[in-house]
Design the sequence.
């Protein structure tokens, strides 16, 4: 599948792109999402404006509390190709509906830190709603138990991770059943950097 061509086809809609991704196998879908450049991801994020994500897109309802759900990501930061690949791992907390806990896993995690966050909806903020229905919020970190085996929860004001995650929020839109696209903001400033996530089966 040439996802780049589909994204830039002037007749494409987010529904058409989502249906094409849904028709792929898990390995084909992951391979397709890992080809996307910054221009591709910016265009995809804009196309997905009318496709609100829900918390269930990140952790399906059938998942138990604290069960880890992996999302394989590619970001648009100015890094060598391999360092643009990462994972966001989510879980549903034991208490507190309407939110998810999560952190970032990748080759730089032991150096930078886990970058913990709380994901929640943006319905209480009309400006945020325009950016995406779900926000991955690094101003917040889990206040309860996370999945077994995850690293220790630390605030994003601590250590080297403060230079990456402090003051950051990622606003998420839905692309397909397994794929979402996010745009990064530092406080309230758009960074024009994006990342695509592909949820494991």
Sequence:
């Amino acid at each position: 599948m040439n996802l780049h061509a589909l994204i830039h086809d002037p007749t494409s809609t987010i529904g058409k792109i989502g249906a094409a991704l849904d028709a792929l196998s898990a390995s084909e879908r992951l391979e397709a999402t890992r080809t996307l450049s910054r221009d591709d991801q910016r265009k995809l994020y804009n196309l997905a404006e009318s496709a609100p994500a829900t918390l269930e897109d990140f952790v399906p309802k059938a998942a138990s509390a604290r069960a880890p759900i992996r999302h394989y990501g590619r970001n648009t930061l100015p890094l060598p190709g391999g360092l643009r690949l990462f994972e966001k791992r989510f879980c549903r907390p034991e208490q507190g509906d309407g939110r998810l806990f999560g952190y970032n896993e990748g080759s730089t995690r032991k150096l930078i830190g886990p970058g913990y966050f709380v994901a929640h909806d943006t319905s209480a903020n009309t400006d945020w709603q325009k950016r995406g229905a779900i926000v991955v919020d690094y101003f917040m970190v889990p206040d309860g138990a996370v999945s077994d085996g995850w690293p220790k929860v630390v605030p994003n004001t601590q250590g080297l991770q403060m230079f990456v995650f402090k003051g950051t929020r990622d606003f998420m839109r839905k692309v397909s059943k397994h794929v979402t696209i996010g745009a990064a903001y530092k406080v309230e400033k758009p960074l024009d950097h994006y990342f695509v996530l592909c949820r494991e089966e």
